[in-house]
Amino acid sequence: MNYPAEPYRIKSIESISLLSREERIKKIHQAGYNTFLLSSKDIYIDLLTDSGTNAMSDKQWASMMTGDEAYSGSQNFELLKKTAQHLFGFKYIVPTHQGRAAENLLSLITIKPGQYVAGNMYFTTTRFHIEKNGATFIDIINDDAHDAMSNVPFKGNIDLDKLKQLIEEKGAENIAYICLAITVNLAGGQPVSMQNMRDVKALCEKHHIRVFYDATRCVENAYFIKEQEAGYQDVSIKEIVHEMFSYADGCTMSGKKDCLVNIGGFLALNNQQLFEQACEWVVAYEGMPSYGGMTGRDMSAMAIGMQEAMQFEYIQHRILQVRYLGNKLKAANIPIIEPIGGHAVFLDAKHFCPHLTQEQLPAQSLAARIYLETGVRTTERGTVSAGRDKITRKNYFPKLETVRLTIPRRVYTYAHLDFVADGIIALYQQKETIQGLKFTYEPKQLRFFTARFAYI
What 3-state DSSP class applies to 355? Predict the structure, then answer.
């Protein structure tokens, strides 16, 4: 496979250093074997997340000097609004400080206690806001998404039969909305086909059910459509993105991913009544509807980042850089989720650590050990992230128990990814030495962020 060179030149650098193994042993122990609790200064290559870790362009940095920091009526919001309306096609834009704030707004204005929200696999903060506002989340993703070894395209698709059955069993009036993620993070960054979006919208319109997208990685999803779905090879990324959103009633957006900035987000809507309700709540939780928790300069940088993300050269390099790391690991028989997704390579911790049960938290154990051996920070996406049943207090045991190697945008080179792959390949040769973990501190909400562990 031909991997394109970086479509940019580097004109500013940040120094990084690799601690000794002895120092890394101390650091991961002090962090309670939770990679979220490590200090960034102790990380060599940081693959914890692609959220807010992007490198901004010269044009974005230059735009920071044009920040209109007016408390109300910022001109930078006007630019952001017009850009989002033009690219996505929605009528109304409500700015927020990041994506999870938009998730909270959407839940507040759409959910009645006792309702259901169905979607193509949960995401941690999304499900939290859904449940916090009184709804139950139901997963209606196609079954292939739960099989790490199933190498089929568009594993993020909603199963239409599951959706039909849900409507029959629960009643359309009891479904607050359908949450369609593009791409699906916890399934391995898997995309959704345009046909599936079209079919979901048609079915939901028939039953008067709204469809909202988690649009965080919509540009990555558009690339997969262009690459793999018939009829889109000669269509631009911008045109694909616009069509994708034509099958939605709105979306939540974390600008920290495909908008190529370090902070910010928004809620986009077509319904005026919902928009007015969202504006009431954003004042209470975030700020005025013309900044919503962002500075003027942040909104300016986001508007430019959204436009840069539509460039084919950028997104092609982005996807193929992730694929480069995944293919290096596959060539060494490292178990990963297939096909390789858009923003990360996901190690299959069940098969990487077959000697550990899910009770022994294999993904958490593997993420901690990767840091100890290599200085590379990764993320657990398995039992710890899944949480507990609110009634029984028993752990959820997801079918996918993974460690996410998330590639920040425009930050690392192929040489950095070679280092990551070599370290994981070396660890795989001694995988039976990876010890299981147990909780020593477990918060009640979103436990994966701040929980602490010890070896069993």
Answer: coil
